[in-house]
Structures are given as structure tokens and as C-alpha cells.
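S2.1 Query sequence (Transcriptional regulator, TetR family)
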Amino acid sequence: MAYRETEKMRQRKAEARQRIVQRTYQCVEEGGFRSARVTRIAGLAGVATGTIYRHFESREDLFAEIFRLATQREVDKVAEALATPGNAAERLERALRQFAERALKGPMMAWSLIAEPVDPKVEEERLAYRKAYANLFEKAIREGIEEGCIPDQDARQSSTCLVGAIAESLVGPLSPTQTSQPACATTDNHDSLVNSIIRFCMQGLTGARR
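Output C-alpha cells follow.
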């Protein structure tokens, strides 16, 4: 008689997979991808190491899924900011601020998503999501050009520049060597840092001094 998987077994497998994802996310959030060792993840998830490889072909596949999950949350937040009331320039400023402020509130995860050295499969995801951000910004820039609040320009190129500028400007502040400093040494400067980043981006985009 052929083996047939029961609904109860499928549910148990789905629950085990979800625990693996949740605990891997936790490890990355606490210490980056470098701290997410398979043995540690298995222990936290309450499964055998081999169980992880029954759900994911490799460690890199698991990390790629965590990267997609974490970054999609951030892309969605940027999209929400771009959908708020106001002209395109105002909405873009809001979205850039959202990006920077969320990164600084969760520095280890943000570092992992933006700059931590990762395996090629995860790096492919990083490039894909940079493009996702750029596509959102490009649409808003085109809307701003039509509205007249943003000067005529190559919207695609400008959107790529925005993504590069904001990501690169956060690399230093998000670096684990910086975020390991006492909270009082870092949080006091967050507002001025975010304002500086936004001012640079918006001046470059609109040509207006802020």
C-alpha cells in the first residue's frame, strides 16, 4: 500500500518549518547571519539538525528565505509611506525617513540586510530588493515630475542613486562596531543623522536647499 501523508503529519511539518524560520530570524536579528549556525537554530527550534535540511536544501536557501521575509517587511513600510497624502516630494521624504529610522531602531537586522557579507544566494536577494526599493522610488519621482514638485530628470537613474545613497550612509552607523557602543552614545545622534541623510537625498533630487 502506498504511503499517504496524513493531514496531522503535514501540519506538524508546517509547524516545524515555521519554528525553524522564526528561530533563524531571531538569530539574525540578534547577531546577524554569522551567528545563525544550523546547530543553534535546530536547538532553538526544538528539531534535529537533519530536519532543517528536509525543509531547506541548504543553509544558504534558509538564509535567502529569511532575507526575503525581513526585507519584504521593509519594502512594504516604504510602500506605505509612499501611499500617504501629500505631493510626491513629501511622500518620498517620508519614505526615506521611514527607511532610515526603522534601520536605526533595528540596527543588527538592518546591517544584515544592507551590508553584512553574505553567501552569493543571499546577495542575489539583496540585489533584487534594492531593485524593489528603486522601482518604488522611480514611480514616485515620475509622479513628482508630472506634478511639478520634482525637476525633470532620469527617474530610473535618480531612484537608483537614492537607494545607494541612503544604504551607504547607514553602513557606518549600523556597523556592529558602532552599535555595540552604549545606547546613550548612539541614540542621541539618530535624529541629526536621519535629518542629514534626508536633506542630502532631497536636495539632490529636487535641487532645493533645505
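Residues 158 and 205 are 7 Å apart (CA to CA). The chain has a mean pLDDT of 92.
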